[in-house]
Design brief:
This protein is an alpha/beta fold. The protein has 24 helices and 21 strands. The strands form four sheets. The protein has a seven-stranded parallel β-sheet with strand order 11-12-10-13-14-9-15, sandwiched between helices. Helix 8 packs across helix 24, helix 10 packs parallel to helix 11 and helix 21 runs antiparallel to helix 22. Bound molecules: adenosine-5'-diphosphate (ADP) and magnesium ion (MG). Magnesium ion binds next to helix 11.
Length: 685
């Protein structure tokens, strides 16, 4: 959105509140207006108590017959009251909100709206919002936006700010040419912005969303197209010859490359020697063996006298790459020098690393974003490889090459995007697909179980550990929370230490730990010193400990399918039979169906396609795909048809009017250049 006025210009937002908004990435009124709701609450009319359903947010209307009770236990305070009507009764509770006791007057009719849960076989409503009858009638039926929030900045405050911003804004001039809007039945831009926040019903919401999704794709693809033009036939300063040492290295590996790895490596090697700058995407499911292909390319650069860099999205992964590359090199007495650069290194360590890079005492540089964020000066950096992360564009490339020449670029991704979509989204890249797993891999055995099955799972983990294997246990949360019933890493570690024999070392890992602590734990797990690792999703991408054979995922219902697939990809990476245990703590039928997809298949493409079928076109706020293509609203799977439409329009438009000089394209030109300005770094355009 184009409004660049500070959010401080809104009533009621001073320095203190503005700081909270900044935490959400909102600085301007435009940012606020594109802080789209993460969900909508349909405020439906109250239902009879007898028709309350588990796991749903519902409203009931009832008169209080007596004042609520305040109960204290442990350090908790709970306000509780029973509601009754002709169809049944239900207990309503609030935790640590003692004032609710005095807020509610006996004899008055209220509407209670909250989540219905089942505890000890009985339904109850937790933490409901309370309305007077009139207040509820004023809002129901309607759809209320739910925004992502931060501590100190709740939904109500954001709703208020957004509606103020909508009222006081200057309307945006329509920039999408009317022939495109007509052809695809797209809402007017101001209508779309208004109704994405405050739709009256589902059809208004879908209409508004369609326009904004189209725009997201459209603007993004104009950028991709520009990149493609800029890159086409760009001659490279780093032309490489095949190196005999690389071939020797390949032959010395304990395994043979799969035909798919071979083909991909040949395509890369062809690019490196072609005289043009390489821009290639390597797509391959988890465990397909992308790393070794990357290493062959890096070694080729090194033996041609150049530097090569490998960038990973997390410190854990960067360090792992560093260790495993070093091991492969030293086992063979190869004289390739490596260096690691990560954010958690001390200033002194960093200085030493930079010095080695600047003076070309290091051939291979492995690290996190620190590789580009810090002032690293490369010396003949000929190849940059990014593992499991965002596309890599001119912006980052400039940061890498400094005043030097453009390096070859290889992007490695496990996101299972069908080829037709990949060609559009990565239009600026050539694509290689590793569509085979290494031989001898046994398919992972899966099971979806309910929480009662836990003791058996622990027993199973114990047996696996006794056979010399290792296990991951994933919990969605770090610490206990009163509001959310989900397993947490800290308590779970304690439980497992009790449940498993003391000879088994159980440790934990989560994102709030210091970099050094995380590294130490990860190293101990990789070396086998720790047998059971309880972790949040920090280990989701890339981590490779082939000896680990059990992946147990608690509250599996809380994760998206793509994420579960990535997590499961941490096992089954060696010769041992591996297992994935998904604990489903929800009774919900559709959750069961979703998990069943994973239970039946280990194939990322299949899972993505089935996920799509289950979600259906109206189910737009379903679970987001994890992965490297993040749009604000758009989902490349559910919105595939719009993606294709936007792609066609962009291509036609830029074929006919490459510089957007026509009168009818002036507003669009202005919008695109603002977009490129805003996203220069983020989207790497
Ligand atoms: P990903 O594609 O998920 O990044 P990795 O590159 O981490 O996968 O490879 C997973 C595991 O498979 C590693 O332990 C690696 O050594 C091993 N591996 C790679 N290629 C082969 C192969 N052709 N045969 C057997 N094992 C392989
Ligand atoms: Mg990997």
């Amino acid at each position: 959105m184009l409004n660049t006025e500070s959010i401080r210009s809104l009533k009621g937002i001073g320095d203190k509140t503005a700081k909270l908004y900044e935490k959400l990435g909102i600085f301007t009124v435009g940012d606020l207006l594109s802080h789209y709701p993460r969900a909508y609450e349909s405020m439906e009319p109250p239902v009879p108590i007898g028709s309350l359903k588990e796991d749903q947010v519902m409203a009931v209307s009832s008169a209080l017959t007596k004042a609520p009770d305040l109960v204290r236990f442990n350090r908790m305070q709970m306000v509780s009251v029973y509601l009754k009507d002709l169809t049944g009764s239900v207990q309503v509770v609030w935790f640590n909100m003692p004032y609710m006791k005095n807020n509610l007057k006996p004899g008055t009719v209220y509407v209670f709206r909250g989540r219905v849960v089942k505890k000890r076989g009985r339904l109850m409503m937790e933490q409901p919002e309370v309305f007077t009858q009139e207040a509820y009638e004023a809002v129901a039926p309607s759809m209320q936006p739910v925004y992502s929030q931060t501590k100190g900045l709740g939904n109500k405050a954001i709703v208020k700010a957004v509606s103020q911003a909508l009222e006081s804004r200057t309307l945006e001039r329509e920039y999408m040419p009317s022939y495109i809007r007509k052809k695809h039945q797209l809402a007017e831009i101001n209508y779309a912005v208004e109704h994405i926040h405050f739709p009256e019903n589902q059809s208004q919401l879908l209409f508004a969303r369609k326009r904004l999704v189209f725009d997201e794709f459209f603007l993004f693809l104009t950028g991709v197209r520009k990149l493609k033009e800029k890159r086409a036939d760009q001659t490279s300063a780093y032309v490489m010859k095949p190196a005999a040492q690389v071939k020797e290295f390949e032959d010395s590996l304990p395994y043979k490359l799969t035909p798919a790895q071979k083909r991909t490596w040949e395509e890369i090697a062809g690019d490196l020697s072609s005289g043009l700058v390489m821009n290639r995407l390597v797509q391959g499911d988890v465990g397909s063996g992308k790393t070794i292909v990357a290493l062959l390319a890096l070694l080729t650069a090194a033996y041609n006298g150049f530097q090569g860099a490998l960038m990973a999205p997390t410190e854990v992964l960067a360090r792992q790459h560093f260790e495993s590359v070093n091991q492969l090199l030293s086992q063979r007495n190869m004289e390739i020098r490596t260096v690691l650069v990560t954010g958690s290194m001390t200033a002194r360590e960093k200085r030493q690393a930079y010095e080695k890079i600047r003076t070309h005492e290091a051939d291979l540089i492995i690290g996190t974003h620190a590789l580009i964020q810090e002032k690293v000066e490369y010396h003949n950096l000929a190849l940059v490889i990014t593992d499991e992360q965002h596309r890599f564009g001119v912006g980052q490339r400039e940061l890498f090459s400094g005043k030097g020449e453009d390096p070859h670029v290889l992007v490695m991704s496990a996101t299972p995007i069908p080829r037709t979509l990949a060609i559009i989204l990565y239009g600026d890249l050539d694509i290689s697909v590793i569509d085979q797993l290494p031989q001898g891999r046994q398919p992972i055995k899966n099971c979806v179980v309910n929480p009662q099955w836990r003791p058996k799972a622990y027993e199973f983990i114990r047996k696996q550990v006794e056979e010399g294997r290792q296990a991951y246990v994933i919990c969605p949360m770090v610490e206990p929370s009163e509001l959310l019933e989900a397993e947490n890493v800290l308590d779970y570690t304690k439980t497992l230490r009790k449940e498993l024999p003391s000879s088994i070392t159980v440790e934990y890992l989560h994102g709030q730990m210091k970099g050094k602590e995380k590294n130490a734990i990860m190293e101990r797990f990789a070396s086998g010193d720790i047998q059971v690792l309880v972790s949040t999703t920090v280990i989701e991408v890339g981590v490779n400990v082939p000896n680990a054979t059990v992946m147990m995922i608690e509250n599996a219902e809380r994760f998206g399918l793509a994420q579960l697939h990535q997590l499961r990809g941490r096992v089954g990476r060696g010769a041992f039979q591996s297992y994935c245990i998904m604990v489903n703590c929800s009774q919900d039928e559709s959750t069961g169906k979703r998990l069943e997809i994973l239970n039946q298949s280990n194939d990322g493409f299949y899972i993505a396609s089935q996920d799509l079928k289950l979600r259906g076109p109206g189910d737009i706020f379903g679970l987001r795909q994890s992965g490297d293509l993040e749009f604000k609203l758009a989902d490349i799977f559910t919105d595939a048809a719009l993606l294709k439409a936007a792609s066609q329009e962009v291509n036609q438009l830029l074929d006919e009017d490459p510089e957007l000089e026509k009168e009818e394209h002036q507003e669009l030109r202005r919008r695109i250049s603002a977009y490129v300005g805003e996203n220069y770094e983020k989207l790497n355009l």
